[in-house]
Amino acid sequence: MNTIDAQLLKEIFIAGAEALNEKKEYVNELNVFPVPDGDTGTNMTMTIQSAVREVEAVTEVTMSNICKAISSGSLRGARGNSGVILSQLLRGLTRQMREYNDIDIEILSASFEKAVETAYKAVMKPKEGTILTVARAGSDMAVYLARENLDIVTYVEAIVGHMRDVLDLTPEMLPVLKEAGVVDSGGEGLLIIIEGALNKLKEKYPALGGGELPDLTAFKKQSAAVKAYEPRQSQKAAKKEKSDKKTEKKEAKQSKEVKDVIQARPARRQVSKADISTADIKFGYCTEFIVNLETDFEDRDEAELKIFLEAVGDSIVVVADDDLVKVHVHTNMPGIALQKALTYGSLSKIKIDNMREEHNERLALDAEKQAGAGSANETVENNDTENMNSPAENESARDNIEDTERSDEYKAQETGPDVQAAQQSGYDEDARTSAGSHVNRAETGFIAVSAGEGLSEIFAGLGADIVIEGGQTMNPSTEDILNAIDQVNADNIFILPNNSNIILASQQASSLVEDKNIIVIPSKTIPQGIMALLNYMSNKSVEENEDTMLREMGNVKSGSVTYSIRDTVIQDVEIKQGDIMGISDAGIVNTGAQVLATTVELIDTLIDADSELVTLYYGKDTTEDEAGLIAASVKKNHPDVDVEVHYGGQPVYYYFVSVE
């Protein structure tokens, strides 16, 4: 035999995961920045172990079941950027394999190609010299050798050998790797997995011999050329990226022209607002269902279904995942939509809501709220007259009434007691709410990722419905974010990752949700997340708020102070293990022997002529007194700049710094 069946696929996959688990610390040590954070090896290991758990739980070992377990487990368990990319590679690989009972070289070649295509499509701006490049090298070799007369072990050995050669070239592709003297950590992690699987495969076919490899000199020279690597995206992916207006706005948000356009643009109307009538609702039935596929469902089938739904409605979402298709559409003919879906398979979780009735109920509810608010304001005015308060005190009292009303209303009507408890103690599976009813949903909700009790309290105080404990030292998984989304009973949910290594997981979670509008605000730091949330305005549309939050994030400079875990050289800065490092949005700014002096020096570099406010969030490993000394020093050096100090409670990082 020269193929891989379902049982062998299970065994070699688990072997690859075990190999990574054994060497995860080695992979962690390859990270360029010597900070004690949630490293590549750890994130990739936790991602693949999530898939292993699902694979081991499979009772009927078939190719379809094993592939589904690998895809679903890695997708939901993905942590960090490297984990998300790994999950997408596994998703593409298994999506091709699951159609067959046995995997030969030709099928393996197509699977490698599908894996790389899927992973590249998942990353908005693929960067060469990373795990993507190493994966693509494997795909290139797999396709090149697919029609050679080789046994499967020799075939995979050749693929691994070429991937290792290209991994060794990654320092030439990314100068930061060369400066640090390391290869790409994600690429190394991927190779460890494949090499572990190969070793298990050799146990199955120890004495198997096949055809000789052809002369690979010309191929290796061409494919390994550093400057020849370009993202190999499909035409469909390229077209999608080109037409993505939101992406274009985000990339250009710092330009004055775009700012002027955003500020001058009129507010967009939303059907959920109270200033419309039911006559303005063009399509009256919110229709959602899942198709349990019984036939092949390729890209052309997905496009066909979308075209059909566009002919009978709007607000269309079609998400194909393994053997399921999730559908959402607003239409006046839900029966027609269901009938079309039945041509692909059976239906489940069907939900049809009459949005006109919901709108009338919401108007009635809003009228009751306004009546209650009027009564509350009248009481405040009477008390103001009686107590002879100042106008400023009167305005403050009204603001407090409005804030209290909004808070009480949200807790009582939108989240429910289970979620209130979850917000106080962290969410769990048992605290999920039923998000099926559109009537009782809030218009907008917020999820923020935070590390440290002080920072979590700050985000909750600014309106975050769920605060996920995570951040730099422990990146939350896609599943963690999905659980949080389940708990927020709102039509539109803003997610603030507050860490560059959590953005991809947030976007992946967003793609798996079909009944809510998820908006990922790509905040890379805690200060950016706080700034974004501060600038949310309840009287503006979702789109306007997204634009504003993205724009205002650009007006804050972020800094952090931590320690180095090893000797290295980064951006011409020589760093010793144990050094205190000041880090800005651009990278490592300064190093020193003392936390206080290093922090003051970092803040001095962040302040410019336009700076007005410095906010210092001190971590659990420092003190309020030390933070006060730093604030006093900054105030002395920059008398025109205000300085605030807050308890963050974050681990690992002595301080987070915000400069506005």
What can you see in these coordinates?
There is one protein chain. This protein is α+β, with helices and mostly antiparallel strands. Helices cover 53% and strands 16% of the residues. The protein has 24 helices and 18 strands. Strand 9, helix 20 (503-511) and strand 10 (517-520) form a beta-alpha-beta unit. Helix 16 crosses helix 17. It is flat and about 75 Å long. The termini are far apart.
Defining key terms:
16% strand; six-stranded mixed beta sheet; 24 helices; single chain; alpha+beta; 660 residues
Largest sheet: 6 strands, mixed
Taken as a percent bin, the fraction of beta residues is 15-25%
Radius of gyration: 27 Å
Summed up, the helix count is 24
For the secondary structure, the number of strands is 18
Summarize the structure in short.
53% of the residues lie in helices and 16% in strands.
